[in-house]
Amino acid sequence: MLDRLRSALSDAIKSLASRALRKTITEEDVDEVLEELKLRLLESEVAFEVAEKLAERVKQRLVGLTVERGWDAEKAIASALREALLEVLGRPGPDLVEEAKRRCGGERPLVVVFLGVNGVGKTTTIAKLAYLMKRSGVTPVLAAADTFRAGAQEQIEAHASRLGVPLVKGRYGSDPASVAFNAVEYARARNYCVVLVDTAGRMHVDYDLMGEMRKIVRVVKPDFKVLVVDALTGNDAVEQARRFNEEVGVDGFIITKVDSDVKGGVAVSIAEATGKPILYLGMGQRYEDLQRFDPEKLVDSILPER
Ligand code: GDP
Question: How many C-beta neighbours within 10 Å does residue 186 have?
């Protein structure tokens, strides 16, 4: 899935290396190559301003560099790219399974609210995390706080029963914030360590999704607000990330459908646009298909071997 990014970076490295040989790299050398790199990043769905920032960071590291051998040049340039990418992607975010474990036996369970528009894979992602947590010895309580969409309650209920984890739901049309609140109370009373709250995601002009999310957040005071976005939607995912972060506040992201034919730029763009970490990647439809996101691993996978 990351082939495009990988070949863009690899071409930029070769091209810069050939200019750098036995002379000091000038701003002009870098500019020409980085213009090409920026175009290629855009084709890989890295957002425009992100491509600009990345190029600027690479430039700062490269102008003035002198190397004696071609091999060294490629290494030095790859390392500048690596550092710039890691700066953009940031540190790894919290491990929600470990965070949940830490709450066991405490006053209040860990509360994680999942946000995201319909169809991105929010409910599936919650089920995957529940599976991961249960396998690590912490059984989560699920909260079905989408009380509007037909089938939403049944969908999460089917996951809960397949996974053998408790579910707190509400009647259709009831207040989502009260469902989330009841789930936290349920968990607290029975000593569960973590609550995963599923929320609504419909985007209609006459309906205030952000207001509803803010209310849930006010009522249950989650430890983490996690936005789920679909990698296949490209720049739309970046826009959603920005908007939810501004209107509700987001502590981290989960990017789904990374197993499909995506161009890889979305992860880089979201991290840069919001400054918040990516926590997990959805890599398929099975419960096992959720991976913790590791910036170093991603960067290693898109840069030629060192
Ligand atoms: P929600 O409306 O956001 O709750 O979305 P759902 O959880 O119902 O998922 C929508 C569709 O996306 C379903 O068909 C899921 O199986 C699929 N899906 C979710 N995550 C992934 C993923 O990581 N990879 C793939 N290929 N499909 C996914």
Answer: 17
